[in-house]
Amino acid sequence: MAEIVVRPMEVKGQSQEPVRVFCENGANLLQALLDAGIFVDNACSGKGICGKCKVKVLKGSLSETSETEKKVLKEQELADGIRLSCLAEVTGDVEIALLQKERKHKVLTGGYIPEFQKDEHESGYGVAIDIGTTTVVTALIELSTGKEIANASMINAQKHFGLDVLTRITYEYENPKTGVRELQEAIVKSINAMLSEVCQEAGVRRRCIREIDVAANCTMMHMLLGVDARSIGRAPYKPEFLSARTLPAREIGIEAAEDTVLYCLPQVSAYIGADIVAGAYVCEMQKAKGNVLFIDIGTNGEIVLASKGKLLCCSCAAGPALEGMNISSGMRATEGAVEDVEISEEGITLKVIGDQTPVGICGSGILAVLRELLKSGIVKKTGVFVKKDKLAETDYRYPMIRMNGTKREFILKEKPELLITQGDVRQVQLAKGAILSGFTALCNKAGIQMEELDRVMIAGQFGAHLPADSLTGTGILPKAVEDKLVYVGNSSKTGAYMTLMSDRIKREMEELAEQMEYMELAETENYERIFTECMIFPS
Description:
Blueprint: E1 2-7, E2 19-23, H1 29-35, E3 54-62, H2 67-72, H3 75-79, E4 82-84, E5 90-98, E6 125-131, E7 135-142, E8 147-155, H4 165-174, H5 179-202, E9 209-216, H6 218-224, E10 245-248, E11 261-264, H7 274-282, E12 292-296, E13 300-307, E14 310-317, E15 337-344, E16 347-352, E17 360-361, H8 363-376, E18 401-404, E19 407-413, E20 418-421, H9 422-446, E21 455-459, H10 460-464, H11 468-473, E22 485-489, H12 491-501, H13 503-515, E23 517-518, H14 527-534
Parallel strand pairs: 1-5, 6-9, 9-11, 12-21, 14-23, 15-17, 21-22
Antiparallel strand pairs: 1-2, 3-4, 3-5, 6-7, 7-8, 10-11, 12-13, 13-14, 15-16, 18-19, 19-20
Helix pairs in contact: 7-12, 9-14, 12-13
């Protein structure tokens, strides 16, 4: 048995006691920390790719530094005793320091709510929940008034099994006997913690909760109900169920009264889940006149187009760059993340979440940087950095670019160092190409031009913090629709609230899911050509 002494990241003016963790000799360090409830960012789920799980060895030793670590870590980091915890084994007692603190996430809890007729209730309470891959949002509702009397949000406890749905599905593959149960227990644990929080805040007893309504993506819905999600991760990508589900909340471990009902909203396909059905309903896509586009931008960009009486939808694999992952200085939208940027002859101005010292760049910040790099001519429409030797030394852009061997990098900030590399630009370029190609393919199928869109509804955590000029300045959307953008906030939670308050809306949302026609982009005619063209940035 080995002891790991874990020292939290030092925070000015705060003193924190070390945490002691015990594990078997030979145990994986990252897994030992996660098992003890210590959060360590691991975007690649322990594959040694993302480089986010760094720790510093203060005393004792770990297994020999691997060749992968030597490639991922800088020479100075290796000299300072920095290790990737996912690739290190505990060989005896060791003392380490965390290089990150669990920061407060910027979580979207509200949004647009259309007017609707509520059912009559004399008493009791209900709960509306939006389960996202990253965050879970809960609202406690007084049924007699429809008023939200308390809300809570937290990071999805499944983060320990991976930061995206595919790595969590992979966990089920790798742990066929226990994976489904472990993932269900994690999300139910999050829900129970938030129910305790909202009930305590409002002074409401749990036994007074009559119904809990949940909107989530298809994978999260499977994992909540303890249904094997592996079929979602392999061709032909067929979920085990798509219809709405009603069951006793206690059946899956939610700590509620015996008669509390759990209602799970309907879905369309493996990658168009109940969260998108909820969003489409909230935005009244089923009643839309003209051409209306709805998108929830994230790792997967889910898109719905209402045109000529039809509802077409698709999902495009934007990748994690727009959530700050797979970016050299990337991070999630937490305190200390750069969320907006301005580049001018006067220099570089940063807007940082929480007005903290910048420590990384979140998704909206990545797009803002690229918008400014394109506007200033530092990056060309092909996505390539301008050559430094083509700039005069008196050019304000000259000191912003540096050579790292033969590669060009943009210096966003020197201390602490925040860089944008050619690889970062490519990651955003791929995301932009995926999203725009989804828009284009849907418009092509509907027989309309992008400029003919009457409204573009943007939902979700990422979209809410995204200025219109970042979307059009990077070419994700054409300039022609910039004044047609409407931000609707957390439409997934709003949809769960509406079904909670109206049985009629439950039925209508189930009908809407049946009407939505899913389109597989990979099977679309000339899709590769469309995608390639959509990767070009605006000039």
